[in-house]
Amino acid sequence: MQEEIYVTAQGLEDMQKELEYLKMEKRPAVIEALKEARALGDLSENAEYDAARNEQAETESRIKTLEVMLEKAIVIENKSTDKVSIGSTVEIEYVEDGDTDTYHIVGSQEADPFANKISNESPIAKAIINLKVGEIGKVESPNGQYDVKILNIN
């Protein structure tokens, strides 16, 4: 059974662009670096060759990972702003202290906490998925439970 990978339309586009870059630009550059390193002679003590081989392995691994992810990708189409779902942008209030945050709920492959993109598998997302504006969700965290209130859904 295949594991589904949830992505936004933007996330799918980003993966496709990265794959194209790796195949069309990075892979040829790595192959060229390998050729140049081989030309230096003795491969058993050739640091440039070892570095180029490692970069080749990393590049090929990332290409394979992206190809598998694209095969399993399910594009999230957020059609409703009634309930929180994957693809929603949600403004929440931390009930205990009144602080607010806005998060975009995305699939785990797109999560970027520094850009306020949280995975649908994160504790906050799990607590608020399917809630409506005004409802309160209990977040289970390693530091204990806390409540968040849904202020706005886009």
Going across the major beta sheet, what is the strand order?
A: 5-4-3-7-6
Structural class: alpha/beta
Q: How would the global form be characterised?
A: elongated
Fourth-tier CATH superfamily name of the largest domain: Transcription elongation factor, GreA/GreB, N-terminal domain
Low-confidence region ranges: none
Mean pLDDT: 92
The SSE string, one letter per element, is EHHEEEEHEE
Rg of Cα set: 22 Å
Query: What share of the residues lie within helices?
Result: 40-55%
Can you give me a brief rundown of this structure?
The chain is 40% helix and 25% strand.
Question: Any overview of this molecule?
Answer:
By secondary structure, this protein is an alpha/beta fold. It has two domains: 5-75, Transcription elongation factor, GreA/GreB, N-terminal domain (Helix Hairpins), CATH 1.10.287.180; 89-153, Transcription elongation factor, GreA/GreB, C-terminal domain (Chitinase A, domain 3, Roll), CATH 3.10.50. 40% of the residues lie in helices and 25% in strands. The chain has three helices and seven strands, in the order βααββββαββ. It has helices at residues 9-38, 47-72, 123-128; strands at 5-7, 73-75, 89-94, 100-106, 117-119, 136-141, 144-153. The strands form two sheets. The chain has a five-stranded mixed β-sheet with strand order 5-4-3-7-6. Strands 1-2 form a two-stranded parallel ribbon. α1 (9-38) runs antiparallel to α2 (47-72). The model has no long low-confidence stretch (mean pLDDT 92).
